[in-house]
Amino acid sequence: MSEAEISEQDAISVGGRLSGRSVVRAHPANPSGNNRVFRLDVAGGDSLALKYYPSQSIDGRDRLGQEYDALSFLARHGVSDVPRPIARDSGSHCALYEWFDGEPAVLQQQHPEDADQLANFLIDLQQLRDAAGARDLRNASAAIFSPSQAIAQYERRLHKLREAAAPYQDLVEFVDESLAPSGMIAIRRLERRYAGMGWNPDSLLAPEHCALSPSDFGLHNAMRGKDGRLRFIDFEYFGWDDPVKLVSDAAIHPGSGFPDSVANRLTERLSREFAARDPAFAVRCDVLYSVFGMIWCLIILNDYLPESRSRRVLAARGGDLGAILAGQLDKARRLHQAICQRDPELSSR
After folding, report:
1. Residue of 32, 72, 261, 313 with fewest CB within 10 Å of its CB?
2. How far are the Cα atoms of 34, 42, 44, 225, 245 from residue 103, in angstroms, in the given order?
């Protein structure tokens, strides 16, 4: 069943079957290009969340399994800031979860303590690294476990974008004149630093130094309750990853839009946590942070790729693709500028 085919009546029927309760009404709740979510009002006054996922035959990833397994693990270990999983139906590409009341944090004015709430959640996650079932969790989406893997991912994404860029002169100029030169500087600096220390960039990160990461994490995946508390949703990419990537994901993610001072504070808090157990963390963070920043710029530009799923969904809904692409390019430019301001060497020629 595709997103376009999911009706409120479909959601009521599936939700009732999965919950074993009478569903009174289904309300579409912030549908996006990746999935559709319904708030189900059930008899007795409660609400549940029914989430539809893309088929693996379309997307290539088991988003349903990744998220449901992650949230099941977190629920077993008492994490209450994430939705409790209730039931799933792989055949219908959907799952039923606890519903969180509140407003999307990204649509509200940022609170001074938002970054600390994000940091506290990520730090608390690391206390579960040795918990029962932790080693059975999958790797995070696009996980990185060595500098060579980070470089390869950057180069692969850059190559794909360049193949699609020809019809878009403004994109070509940004990639050739700004993004690619900065990426090359970051990579060459990493290679020199590793060579100088006698380290092998192909060496994989030891399991005890890996982190549990939501991967795609920020205020865009948070709901704010009336008490100001943030609760976190969307764990389709959750799993094991390099903590440097986790730190950069949390601080850089365009879905949060943190000012530089807040992003730096978040980076410092998380870095202290990981450096305490990994003597090499500080060096790896110093040379990898900007590489991950360049990767984020490329991720923002994914809608330019012909195979982009969100692009196909947008076209099916009659959206203005040109306006969307222009907006994404502007986001990538602003993120690139912010990364270069943090690391001025990336702008040198």
Report:
1. 261
2. 20, 20, 23, 7, 28
The string of DSSP letters for 235-304 reads -TT-EEE-HHHHHHHHHH-TTT---HHHHHHHHHHHHHHHHTT-TTHHHHHHHHHHHHHHHHHHHHGGGG
Task: Flag whether the pTM goes above 0.85.
Answer: yes
Listed residue (96, 100, 101, 61) closest to 82, CA to CA:
100
Domain boundaries, the chain: 3-99, 105-347
CA angle 173, 174, 179 (to 5 degrees): 130
Separation CA 285–CA 244 (nearest Å): 5
| Nearest-10 Cα torsion for 146, 148, 152, 158 | 100
Instruction: Provide the CATH topology of domain 3-99.
Output: Phosphorylase Kinase; domain 1 (3.30.200)
**CA dist 320 to 67, 297, 339, Å?**
31, 22, 29
Per-residue pLDDT at 108:
83
CATH node for 105-347: 3.90.1200
Among 20-24, 255-259, 301-305, 311-315, which is the least confidently predicted range?
A: 311-315
Residue 348 has pLDDT above 80, yes or no: no
The three-state secondary structure class of 151 is helix
**Residue 106 pLDDT > 50:** yes
Find all residues with CB under 8 Å of 291, minimum gap 6, and list them.
Answer: 147, 150, 151, 154, 183, 186, 187, 190
